[in-house]
Design goal:
Layout lengths: L1 H27 L11 H16 L3 H15 L4 H18 L5 H23 L5 H16 L4 H16 L3 H19 L8 H32 L3
Helix pairs in contact: 2-3, 2-9, 3-4, 4-5, 5-6, 6-7, 7-8, 8-9
Length: about 230
């Protein structure tokens, strides 16, 4: 009688272990990500949510947004997406308080380097994490220093051009539109943002991502055409 009870128990354990192994494989096994394979409209919505959660200091929600962008849009593994979300949210939180520029770089650069190390490993990017991380933080700090949206828009352009290894002029329109939407939000701070304003930002961010996708795709096609006999 007891042997008959043991067989179903062993079977259940085998099924459970198999499911756990499948989950571990899905979650942890690295994948080759594609930073150009994103849905512009969806990315516009995700980024709009990121901004909203950041300014409302809802950091767990910001982490979820970052995970969605990395996993569902770029194709990073769940494990890499989780780590990227953690490091990006940590850098954002550390750099938010009012503090000297040197202190902001001292505390926020390390997690940003880890963030870009994950990207580099999964995308075979040629840039160095320690070189691109400061470019990311630069426009964050410029915004806090009350630079104009055109000024930090140029900083975003420099970062994006290095990220995708394309000429700055090809991505400048997309980056400038993104910066303009940041300025739009800033003009309505202190509780003046409405749902209609957030929808306006979401729509224009979607346009920005569409322009970016067209720019980086075109930059890949043109060199290939030049190599044809």
């Amino acid at each position: 009688m007891f042997m008959g009870l043991l067989k179903p128990t062993r079977l259940r354990w085998r099924v459970l272990i198999s499911l756990l192994l499948l989950f571990a494989a899905w979650f942890f096994i690295p994948r080759h990500a594609d930073m150009e394979n994103f849905d512009p409209s969806r990315m516009g919505q995700i980024e709009s949510d990121m901004w909203r959660h950041y300014y409302e200091k809802k950091y767990p929600s910001l982490g979820v947004d970052l995970f969605l962008a990395s996993h569902s849009q770029y194709g990073f593994s769940p494990w890499d997406s989780t780590r990227m979300a953690w490091y990006a949210a940590k850098a954002a939180k550390l750099s938010q308080p009012t503090q000297p520029r040197t202190q902001a770089f001292a505390v926020a650069i390390p997690p940003l380097i880890r963030y870009y190390e994950i990207i580099q490993h999964s995308t075979d990017s040629v840039w160095k994490p320690e070189e691109i991380a400061p470019l990311e933080l630069e426009w964050w700090v410029m915004r806090r220093e009350k630079a104009t949206w055109q000024e930090y828009g140029e900083a975003i352009t420099t970062l994006t051009a290095m990220t995708y290894q394309v000429p700055a002029e090809s991505v400048r329109p997309a980056c400038m539109l993104r910066a303009e939407m940041m300025h739009y939000r800033d003009e309505r701070r202190n509780g003046l943002m409405t749902e209609a304003d957030w929808q306006h930002i979401t729509t224009h961010l979607g346009r920005s991502w569409q322009m970016l996708k067209q720019a980086v795709t075109k930059s890949e096609i043109e060199p290939a055409m030049l190599t044809k006999p």
